[in-house]
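TODO from last week: model Carbohydrate kinase.
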Amino acid sequence: MGKIFCIGQSAYDITIPLSEPIIENQKYRITEKLECGGGPAFNSACLCGLWGADVSLISRIGEDGYGRKLWQTAEECGVDLRHLIPDHEIETPHSFIFANHSNGSRTLFNFPGVQKDIEYQLPEEEVTVILSDGHEPKISLAAIEKYSKALSVVDAGTCRESTLETAKASDYLVCSEDFARQYTGKTIDLQDKDSCEKIFREIEKINGKYVVITLGERGLLYRICGEIRHLPAYPAQAKDTTGAGDIFHGAFAYGLWKELPLVDILKLSSMAASLSVRKLGSQTSIPALMDVERELKKES
């Protein structure tokens, strides 16, 4: 069995829990904060590593304090760091996140760092799954071409040109409701089946293969046997939704790596995301595989 390559952004997250929405021109007294690893590719790689997969992270991590902490966290999660992008001058990307305890919503401020155009040589590895978050489109597209037998997944959270470019070449386009709305200009109404079909078909035209549209607490849409199906979300009392999408995509990549049926992959990913929002933080909220499997058995 080959490797999983997680390609894209790593970031250091500083999460501040609040009990109310942020209001401009106000002062807030902070009594606690949580610092941990973050970023779509980083979180996905950590999940795959913790779940026992052979996973490599292809990302930019600086040589500063945040970078050293990310490096240590990834190693502790079992992530192979031999293939990091050698951008030694970059300031490690980091995010300041305000998590509203009352409803689990979060406000995120991300500093991506100034990236140089780096010549990157893909390693000679046997790769089974490629997961890209769209932040490194050139490397992602080169990987999809080089490892032509690997299944490729794009984590499409926002409809940026780089994400769209990667999505066109990917086998699985797993996008957020925001991406679908930004791309089509239409809002998904689960009560309107014809509208859902039209939106889904429009998204399917991007890559001409598999599409999944995640809807947060409303679940997700997917197509099987020619029919669009709705998988409801597993209920959760959300404490912090930061990283839930990353964890969903990491579990999705893991499911492909394990050669699970699509429906089983979606249930696994949905449960992992559901368990994650019950904890504070992103990488720190990755659930253990045994906990996800135990909760799925309760639902069966």
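Done. Residues 95 and 109 are 5 Å apart (CA to CA).
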